[in-house]
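Internal ticket - ligand job 303, magnesium ion:
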Amino acid sequence: MGFFDKIKKGLNRTVQVLQTDVRDLFKTDGRLVDADFLQDLFETLVRTDMGVEAAQSAVDEIKAQFRGRVVIKDDILGVVKSKLKSLMAQEGPAIHFAQSGPTVVLFVGVNGAGKTTSIAKLTKATTELGNSVILGAADTFRAAAVEQLQIWAKRLGVECVSGPARSDPASVAHKAVARAIEEKADLCLIDCAGRLHTQKNLMNELVKIKRVVGKLIPEAPHETFLVLDATTGQNGLNQAKNFTEAVDCTGVILTKLDGTAKGGVAVAIRQQVGLPVRYIGLGESENDFEAFNPDDFVEAMFS
Ligand SMILES: Nc1nc2c(ncn2[C@@H]2O[C@H](COP(=O)(O)OP(=O)(O)O)[C@@H](O)[C@H]2O)c(=O)[nH]1
Ligand SMILES: [Mg+2]
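stdout (structure tokens):
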């Protein structure tokens, strides 16, 4: 399956709902762009969870270009898509690799967001491209969490560094990065325990992990990915805002897009949290993962 088809399939629930809603907007051959139409279009867009601001700016653009004219679906979708693409435009590669030595990536977020699964997916994607990867099991809070990462490591054929039960997460992170340096690995992916931004001690623990890995490699961590569950909607967005205020994140991994009809949340993240979406999760298998590209994403949504 091609790249675009994979996104489209993963976004199936969003695509289905949007298709029906857009079809309803254009029940007749053409439709007059009046207040009624603009309101209907706004509601259709908002239902995807893209956020009121993004929906409004797309509607404003339609109003400016087409008010009082009779339009067909393609006129409208063309303008909406290009507006959303420009709102989501982002710089840089999915991962900023270190100039030399291992690139260290931390995975943070609340429990169950998909951190460990995303690490497995990114391991699969990057080892396929020839990178060597070492995992760090710094979610030492639950024995099952360490085990889950170890199982993935075994399946994917990479090394997983762990510590004794309930050991200091920062010491495990340190050990993993030291091992990555020793092995001349390209990537060191560190799994952190789930936490809420309100848990001060756990947020401080993340700051400590960052400081400790920075002692081994001054630029590390090179990326701190905030893993967000797309099915949590506005609640997830609020969490993300609070999280980024407590600890610097460099990008978002948006998981479980396959489980929601509200895939527009990717637009809202960019708009409301300000972080670029770097990868998307489209299912539970290690292959259901893609680097995020706003243009393809918007095209898939409205396909
Ligand atoms: N459908 C779907 N499920 C996912 C995705 N990513 C993770 N999951 C599931 O979400 C659950 C929690 O994932 P996990 O990686 O353990 O979350 P963590 O607590 O953040 O490490 C697991 O059952 C995963 O299989 C995704 O993109 N799509
Ligand atoms: Mg986990």
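Auto-summary: The chain has two domains: 3-88, 103-301. The longest helix spans residues 200-216.
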